Protein backbone atom coordinates (compact mmCIF):
# COMPACT_ATOMS: atom_id res chain seq x y z
CA UNK A 1 0.00 0.00 0.00
CA UNK A 2 1.27 3.43 -0.88
CA UNK A 3 0.80 6.74 0.93
CA UNK A 4 0.87 9.74 -1.36
CA UNK A 5 3.18 12.33 0.16
CA UNK A 6 3.62 14.52 -2.93
CA UNK A 7 1.39 17.49 -2.22
CA UNK A 8 0.52 20.54 -4.29
CA UNK A 9 -0.71 20.74 -7.84
CA UNK A 10 2.75 19.90 -9.23
CA UNK A 11 3.00 17.16 -11.82
CA UNK A 12 1.40 13.95 -10.57
CA UNK A 13 2.60 10.66 -11.87
CA UNK A 14 0.44 7.76 -10.78
CA UNK A 15 2.05 4.79 -9.07
CA UNK A 16 3.21 2.33 -11.76
CA UNK A 17 2.14 -0.55 -9.50
CA UNK A 18 -1.39 0.76 -8.90
CA UNK A 19 -3.06 -2.38 -10.20
CA UNK A 20 -0.86 -4.87 -8.32
CA UNK A 21 -3.13 -5.48 -5.36
CA UNK A 22 -6.60 -4.14 -6.19
CA UNK A 23 -9.23 -6.77 -6.97
CA UNK A 24 -12.05 -6.09 -9.42
CA UNK A 25 -15.58 -7.50 -9.59
CA UNK A 26 -18.05 -7.44 -12.47
CA UNK A 27 -20.91 -5.02 -11.98
CA UNK A 28 -24.01 -7.16 -12.54
CA UNK A 29 -24.20 -8.51 -16.09
CA UNK A 30 -22.40 -5.50 -17.56
CA UNK A 31 -19.02 -5.03 -19.16
CA UNK A 32 -17.82 -2.90 -16.24
CA UNK A 33 -15.40 -4.13 -13.60
CA UNK A 34 -15.47 -2.22 -10.32
CA UNK A 35 -12.60 -2.02 -7.82
CA UNK A 36 -13.74 -3.76 -4.62
CA UNK A 37 -13.27 -0.43 -2.81
CA UNK A 38 -14.44 2.90 -4.25
CA UNK A 39 -14.02 6.41 -2.85
CA UNK A 40 -16.92 8.79 -2.16
CA UNK A 41 -16.59 12.58 -1.99
CA UNK A 42 -19.68 13.35 0.10
CA UNK A 43 -17.56 14.68 2.99
CA UNK A 44 -14.04 16.13 3.10
CA UNK A 45 -14.17 17.81 -0.34
CA UNK A 46 -16.23 20.94 0.43
CA UNK A 47 -14.98 24.51 0.41
CA UNK A 48 -14.67 24.17 4.19
CA UNK A 49 -12.02 21.47 3.69
CA UNK A 50 -8.39 21.75 2.66
CA UNK A 51 -8.05 21.15 -1.08
CA UNK A 52 -4.60 19.62 -0.63
CA UNK A 53 -5.92 17.01 1.80
CA UNK A 54 -8.52 16.07 -0.82
CA UNK A 55 -5.83 15.91 -3.50
CA UNK A 56 -3.80 13.57 -1.29
CA UNK A 57 -6.83 11.32 -0.75
CA UNK A 58 -7.58 11.06 -4.47
CA UNK A 59 -3.93 10.40 -5.35
CA UNK A 60 -3.62 7.82 -2.59
CA UNK A 61 -6.79 6.11 -3.81
CA UNK A 62 -5.73 5.93 -7.47
CA UNK A 63 -2.17 4.94 -6.55
CA UNK A 64 -3.68 1.89 -4.87
CA UNK A 65 -5.98 0.87 -7.70
CA UNK A 66 -9.20 2.66 -6.70
CA UNK A 67 -10.55 3.59 -10.11
CA UNK A 68 -13.98 4.77 -9.02
CA UNK A 69 -14.76 8.22 -7.52
CA UNK A 70 -18.38 8.90 -6.54
CA UNK A 71 -19.90 12.41 -6.43
CA UNK A 72 -23.29 14.11 -6.47
CA UNK A 73 -24.51 17.56 -7.44
CA UNK A 74 -25.04 18.64 -3.83
CA UNK A 75 -21.88 17.30 -2.13
CA UNK A 76 -20.10 20.12 -0.33
CA UNK A 77 -20.67 22.32 1.60
CA UNK A 78 -21.86 24.38 -0.12
CA UNK A 79 -23.77 22.38 -2.72
CA UNK A 80 -21.63 21.84 -5.81
CA UNK A 81 -18.33 22.39 -3.95
CA UNK A 82 -17.14 18.78 -4.07
CA UNK A 83 -17.62 18.69 -7.84
CA UNK A 84 -15.78 22.03 -8.18
CA UNK A 85 -12.87 20.85 -6.05
CA UNK A 86 -12.79 17.50 -7.80
CA UNK A 87 -12.76 19.40 -11.12
CA UNK A 88 -9.69 21.40 -10.03
CA UNK A 89 -7.81 18.32 -8.92
CA UNK A 90 -8.91 16.39 -12.00
CA UNK A 91 -7.54 19.14 -14.26
CA UNK A 92 -4.19 19.26 -12.42
CA UNK A 93 -3.68 15.56 -11.78
CA UNK A 94 -6.04 13.10 -13.40
CA UNK A 95 -6.72 14.32 -16.94
CA UNK A 96 -4.15 11.94 -18.46
CA UNK A 97 -5.84 9.09 -16.59
CA UNK A 98 -9.47 9.84 -17.58
CA UNK A 99 -9.93 6.53 -19.38
CA UNK A 100 -8.75 4.62 -16.30
CA UNK A 101 -11.43 6.22 -14.12
CA UNK A 102 -15.11 5.71 -13.42
CA UNK A 103 -16.58 9.02 -12.24
CA UNK A 104 -20.19 9.24 -11.11
CA UNK A 105 -22.62 11.97 -10.17
CA UNK A 106 -26.25 12.13 -9.09
CA UNK A 107 -29.30 14.34 -8.85
CA UNK A 108 -32.47 13.82 -6.83
CA UNK A 109 -32.05 15.76 -3.60
CA UNK A 110 -32.41 19.48 -2.98
CA UNK A 111 -29.98 21.41 -5.20
CA UNK A 112 -31.23 24.85 -6.26
CA UNK A 113 -34.21 27.03 -5.28
CA UNK A 114 -37.60 26.74 -6.91
CA UNK A 115 -39.56 23.77 -8.20
CA UNK A 116 -36.98 22.54 -10.77
CA UNK A 117 -34.00 21.87 -8.46
CA UNK A 118 -35.16 18.77 -6.59
CA UNK A 119 -36.70 15.28 -6.96
CA UNK A 120 -37.01 13.53 -10.34
CA UNK A 121 -38.30 15.61 -13.24
CA UNK A 122 -36.63 15.46 -16.64
CA UNK A 123 -36.16 19.24 -16.31
CA UNK A 124 -34.12 18.82 -13.10
CA UNK A 125 -32.03 15.81 -14.11
CA UNK A 126 -30.97 17.17 -17.50
CA UNK A 127 -30.06 20.64 -16.17
CA UNK A 128 -28.31 19.19 -13.14
CA UNK A 129 -26.03 16.89 -15.12
CA UNK A 130 -25.07 19.79 -17.39
CA UNK A 131 -24.12 21.81 -14.30
CA UNK A 132 -22.17 18.89 -12.79
CA UNK A 133 -20.17 18.38 -15.99
CA UNK A 134 -19.24 22.07 -16.03
CA UNK A 135 -18.16 22.04 -12.39
CA UNK A 136 -16.01 18.94 -12.89
CA UNK A 137 -14.66 19.99 -16.29
CA UNK A 138 -15.75 16.67 -17.83
CA UNK A 139 -17.36 15.83 -21.17
CA UNK A 140 -19.28 12.94 -19.64
CA UNK A 141 -19.70 11.01 -16.38
CA UNK A 142 -19.39 7.25 -16.34
CA UNK A 143 -22.47 6.75 -14.19
CA UNK A 144 -25.35 9.13 -13.58
CA UNK A 145 -27.78 8.25 -10.81
CA UNK A 146 -31.23 9.26 -9.81
CA UNK A 147 -30.36 9.90 -6.15
CA UNK A 148 -33.63 8.86 -4.47
CA UNK A 149 -37.15 7.80 -5.41
CA UNK A 150 -39.60 10.62 -6.17
CA UNK A 151 -43.15 9.73 -5.10
CA UNK A 152 -44.77 12.34 -7.36
CA UNK A 153 -42.97 12.23 -10.71
CA UNK A 154 -43.94 9.35 -13.02
CA UNK A 155 -41.14 6.78 -13.03
CA UNK A 156 -41.31 6.78 -16.85
CA UNK A 157 -40.29 10.47 -16.85
CA UNK A 158 -37.33 10.01 -14.48
CA UNK A 159 -36.08 6.89 -16.26
CA UNK A 160 -36.69 8.57 -19.62
CA UNK A 161 -34.39 11.41 -18.52
CA UNK A 162 -31.62 8.94 -17.57
CA UNK A 163 -32.02 7.17 -20.93
CA UNK A 164 -31.93 10.51 -22.76
CA UNK A 165 -28.69 11.54 -21.00
CA UNK A 166 -27.03 8.26 -21.90
CA UNK A 167 -28.22 8.61 -25.50
CA UNK A 168 -26.72 12.10 -25.64
CA UNK A 169 -23.37 10.77 -24.38
CA UNK A 170 -23.48 12.85 -21.18
CA UNK A 171 -23.37 9.64 -19.13
CA UNK A 172 -22.14 6.20 -20.18
CA UNK A 173 -24.35 4.29 -17.75
CA UNK A 174 -27.37 4.96 -15.56
CA UNK A 175 -28.04 4.05 -11.93
CA UNK A 176 -30.52 4.52 -9.11
CA UNK A 177 -29.99 5.05 -5.40
CA UNK A 178 -32.07 4.02 -2.38
CA UNK A 179 -34.94 2.66 -4.52
CA UNK A 180 -36.80 -0.16 -2.73
CA UNK A 181 -36.99 -3.58 -4.39
CA UNK A 182 -40.43 -3.18 -6.03
CA UNK A 183 -39.61 0.21 -7.53
CA UNK A 184 -36.22 -1.09 -8.66
CA UNK A 185 -38.00 -3.86 -10.61
CA UNK A 186 -40.28 -1.29 -12.29
CA UNK A 187 -37.39 1.07 -13.08
CA UNK A 188 -35.31 -1.79 -14.49
CA UNK A 189 -38.18 -2.87 -16.77
CA UNK A 190 -38.67 0.66 -18.12
CA UNK A 191 -34.95 1.06 -18.78
CA UNK A 192 -34.63 -2.36 -20.45
CA UNK A 193 -37.53 -1.49 -22.74
CA UNK A 194 -35.86 1.82 -23.60
CA UNK A 195 -32.59 0.01 -24.41
CA UNK A 196 -30.50 1.49 -21.56
CA UNK A 197 -30.36 -1.21 -18.88
CA UNK A 198 -29.64 0.13 -15.40
CA UNK A 199 -26.03 -0.65 -14.50
CA UNK A 200 -26.10 -0.28 -10.77
CA UNK A 201 -28.01 0.45 -7.58
CA UNK A 202 -26.44 2.52 -4.77
CA UNK A 203 -28.05 1.53 -1.46
CA UNK A 204 -27.07 2.31 2.11
CA UNK A 205 -25.77 -0.96 3.49
CA UNK A 206 -23.67 -1.86 6.50
CA UNK A 207 -23.71 -4.21 9.49
CA UNK A 208 -26.03 -1.86 11.39
CA UNK A 209 -28.39 -1.15 8.46
CA UNK A 210 -29.35 -4.33 6.59
CA UNK A 211 -32.55 -3.28 4.76
CA UNK A 212 -31.20 -4.43 1.37
CA UNK A 213 -31.20 -8.06 2.53
CA UNK A 214 -35.00 -7.98 2.59
CA UNK A 215 -35.61 -8.26 -1.17
CA UNK A 216 -33.42 -5.65 -2.84
CA UNK A 217 -30.28 -7.77 -3.32
CA UNK A 218 -32.37 -10.61 -4.76
CA UNK A 219 -34.07 -8.22 -7.17
CA UNK A 220 -30.72 -6.81 -8.33
CA UNK A 221 -29.45 -10.31 -9.04
CA UNK A 222 -32.63 -11.10 -10.99
CA UNK A 223 -32.24 -7.90 -13.02
CA UNK A 224 -28.50 -8.43 -13.67
CA UNK A 225 -27.69 -5.15 -11.93
CA UNK A 226 -24.65 -4.47 -9.78
CA UNK A 227 -24.58 -2.65 -6.47
CA UNK A 228 -22.35 -0.21 -4.61
CA UNK A 229 -22.85 -0.13 -0.83
CA UNK A 230 -22.66 3.37 0.66
CA UNK A 231 -21.82 4.35 4.26
CA UNK A 232 -20.29 0.88 4.79
CA UNK A 233 -18.79 2.03 8.09
CA UNK A 234 -21.98 3.76 9.27
CA UNK A 235 -20.14 7.07 8.85
CA UNK A 236 -17.28 5.88 11.07
CA UNK A 237 -19.26 4.20 13.86
CA UNK A 238 -18.19 0.77 12.57
CA UNK A 239 -14.53 1.47 13.33
CA UNK A 240 -12.64 1.53 16.60
CA UNK A 241 -12.51 5.37 16.58
CA UNK A 242 -15.42 6.01 18.96
CA UNK A 243 -14.56 3.30 21.49
CA UNK A 244 -12.42 5.59 23.63
CA UNK A 245 -14.71 8.64 23.43
CA UNK A 246 -15.48 11.00 20.57
CA UNK A 247 -12.27 12.30 18.94
CA UNK A 248 -12.17 16.06 18.23
CA UNK A 249 -11.31 15.57 14.55
CA UNK A 250 -14.12 13.04 13.94
CA UNK A 251 -17.15 13.58 11.71
CA UNK A 252 -19.45 13.42 14.76
CA UNK A 253 -17.83 16.51 16.28
CA UNK A 254 -16.48 18.35 13.24
CA UNK A 255 -19.51 18.13 10.99
CA UNK A 256 -22.83 17.56 12.71
CA UNK A 257 -24.88 17.72 9.50
CA UNK A 258 -25.43 13.99 9.15
CA UNK A 259 -23.68 12.08 11.94
CA UNK A 260 -24.93 13.35 15.27
CA UNK A 261 -23.16 12.75 18.56
CA UNK A 262 -26.51 11.47 19.87
CA UNK A 263 -26.33 8.50 17.45
CA UNK A 264 -23.28 7.15 19.26
CA UNK A 265 -25.23 5.66 22.16
CA UNK A 266 -23.97 3.22 24.82
CA UNK A 267 -26.06 0.46 23.14
CA UNK A 268 -24.38 1.10 19.78
CA UNK A 269 -20.94 1.25 21.39
CA UNK A 270 -21.56 -2.07 23.15
CA UNK A 271 -22.19 -3.73 19.78
CA UNK A 272 -19.15 -2.00 18.29
CA UNK A 273 -16.98 -3.25 21.17
CA UNK A 274 -18.16 -6.83 20.61
CA UNK A 275 -17.65 -6.58 16.85
CA UNK A 276 -14.19 -5.16 17.48
CA UNK A 277 -13.30 -8.29 19.44
CA UNK A 278 -14.49 -10.54 16.59
CA UNK A 279 -12.46 -8.44 14.14
CA UNK A 280 -9.33 -8.73 16.31
CA UNK A 281 -9.72 -12.52 16.35
CA UNK A 282 -9.78 -12.43 12.54
CA UNK A 283 -6.60 -10.34 12.55
CA UNK A 284 -8.48 -7.32 11.16
CA UNK A 285 -9.41 -3.83 12.30
CA UNK A 286 -13.15 -3.34 12.77
CA UNK A 287 -13.25 -1.10 9.66
CA UNK A 288 -11.62 -3.90 7.65
CA UNK A 289 -14.07 -6.49 8.96
CA UNK A 290 -17.07 -4.25 8.24
CA UNK A 291 -15.92 -3.85 4.63
CA UNK A 292 -15.07 -7.54 4.22
CA UNK A 293 -18.47 -8.51 5.66
CA UNK A 294 -20.17 -6.62 2.80
CA UNK A 295 -17.86 -8.01 0.13
CA UNK A 296 -18.46 -11.64 1.17
CA UNK A 297 -21.65 -11.33 -0.90
CA UNK A 298 -20.83 -11.36 -4.62
CA UNK A 299 -23.93 -9.25 -5.31
CA UNK A 300 -22.06 -6.30 -3.79
CA UNK A 301 -19.93 -5.08 -6.68
CA UNK A 302 -17.97 -2.54 -4.63
CA UNK A 303 -17.95 -0.88 -1.22
CA UNK A 304 -18.07 2.92 -1.26
CA UNK A 305 -16.03 4.35 1.60
CA UNK A 306 -15.49 7.94 2.69
CA UNK A 307 -12.23 8.89 4.40
CA UNK A 308 -10.82 12.01 6.02
CA UNK A 309 -7.21 10.75 6.11
CA UNK A 310 -5.01 8.65 3.85
CA UNK A 311 -4.24 6.31 6.76
CA UNK A 312 -7.94 5.42 6.95
CA UNK A 313 -7.98 4.55 3.27
CA UNK A 314 -4.90 2.37 3.64
CA UNK A 315 -6.46 0.66 6.66
CA UNK A 316 -9.63 0.00 4.64
CA UNK A 317 -7.71 -1.36 1.64
CA UNK A 318 -6.16 -4.02 3.88
CA UNK A 319 -9.67 -5.51 4.18
CA UNK A 320 -9.19 -7.09 0.76
CA UNK A 321 -6.62 -9.51 2.21
CA UNK A 322 -9.44 -11.48 3.85
CA UNK A 323 -13.04 -11.22 2.71
CA UNK A 324 -14.02 -14.78 3.67
CA UNK A 325 -15.89 -15.63 6.87
CA UNK A 326 -16.32 -18.95 8.66
CA UNK A 327 -19.82 -20.06 9.61
CA UNK A 328 -18.90 -19.53 13.27
CA UNK A 329 -17.75 -15.95 12.64
CA UNK A 330 -20.96 -15.12 10.77
CA UNK A 331 -23.01 -16.64 13.57
CA UNK A 332 -21.16 -14.61 16.21
CA UNK A 333 -21.61 -11.41 14.19
CA UNK A 334 -25.33 -12.08 13.76
CA UNK A 335 -25.69 -12.67 17.48
CA UNK A 336 -24.11 -9.28 18.20
CA UNK A 337 -26.18 -7.51 15.55
CA UNK A 338 -29.36 -9.12 16.87
N1 LIG B 1 -26.56 7.64 -2.50
C1 LIG B 1 -26.69 8.28 -1.36
O1 LIG B 1 -27.78 8.72 -0.99
C2 LIG B 1 -25.48 8.46 -0.50
C3 LIG B 1 -25.61 8.92 0.83
C4 LIG B 1 -24.47 9.01 1.60
C5 LIG B 1 -23.23 8.66 1.08
N2 LIG B 1 -23.12 8.26 -0.21
C6 LIG B 1 -21.81 7.93 -0.82
O2 LIG B 1 -21.12 7.03 0.02
C7 LIG B 1 -19.82 7.57 0.32
C8 LIG B 1 -19.36 7.06 1.65
O3 LIG B 1 -20.27 7.45 2.67
P1 LIG B 1 -19.72 7.73 4.13
O4 LIG B 1 -18.70 8.81 4.07
O5 LIG B 1 -20.86 7.84 5.05
O6 LIG B 1 -18.93 6.31 4.38
P2 LIG B 1 -18.33 5.56 5.60
O7 LIG B 1 -17.15 4.86 5.02
O8 LIG B 1 -19.39 4.76 6.28
O9 LIG B 1 -17.85 6.69 6.63
C9 LIG B 1 -16.75 7.50 6.35
C10 LIG B 1 -16.15 8.03 7.64
O10 LIG B 1 -15.72 6.96 8.46
C11 LIG B 1 -14.49 7.26 9.07
N3 LIG B 1 -13.50 6.25 8.62
C12 LIG B 1 -13.34 5.72 7.38
N4 LIG B 1 -12.38 4.78 7.39
C13 LIG B 1 -11.93 4.72 8.68
C14 LIG B 1 -10.95 3.94 9.32
N5 LIG B 1 -10.25 3.02 8.65
N6 LIG B 1 -10.74 4.14 10.65
C15 LIG B 1 -11.45 5.05 11.35
N7 LIG B 1 -12.40 5.83 10.78
C16 LIG B 1 -12.63 5.65 9.46
C17 LIG B 1 -14.12 8.66 8.65
O11 LIG B 1 -14.67 9.51 9.64
P3 LIG B 1 -13.98 10.84 10.18
O12 LIG B 1 -14.38 11.89 9.21
O13 LIG B 1 -14.62 10.98 11.53
O14 LIG B 1 -12.50 10.64 10.23
C18 LIG B 1 -14.88 8.84 7.38
O15 LIG B 1 -15.14 10.18 7.08
C19 LIG B 1 -20.04 9.07 0.22
O16 LIG B 1 -18.84 9.79 0.07
C20 LIG B 1 -20.92 9.15 -0.98
O17 LIG B 1 -20.15 9.02 -2.16
C21 LIG B 1 -24.23 8.14 -0.99
From TrEMBL:
Residues 37-335 form the NADP-dependent oxidoreductase domain. Gene3D superfamilies: NADP-dependent oxidoreductase domain (3.20.20.100). One of its GO terms (molecular function) is oxidoreductase activity. Keywords: NADP, Oxidoreductase. GO terms for biological process: methylglyoxal catabolic process. The keyword Oxidoreductase applies. It holds the Pfam family Aldo_ket_red. It comes from the Bacteria. The keyword NADP applies. NCBIfam families: PRK09912.1. Belongs to the shaker potassium channel beta subunit family. This is L-glyceraldehyde 3-phosphate reductase.
Amino acid sequence: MKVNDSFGPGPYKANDRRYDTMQFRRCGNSGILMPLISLGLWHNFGHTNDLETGRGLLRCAFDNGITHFDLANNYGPPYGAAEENFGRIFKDDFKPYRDELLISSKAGWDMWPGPYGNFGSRKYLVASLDQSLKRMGLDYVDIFYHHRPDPDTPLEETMGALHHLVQRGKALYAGISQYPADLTAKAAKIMKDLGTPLLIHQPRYNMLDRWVEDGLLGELEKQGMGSIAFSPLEQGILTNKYLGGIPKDSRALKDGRYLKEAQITPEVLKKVEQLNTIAKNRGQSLAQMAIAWLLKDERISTVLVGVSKQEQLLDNLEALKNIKFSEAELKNINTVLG
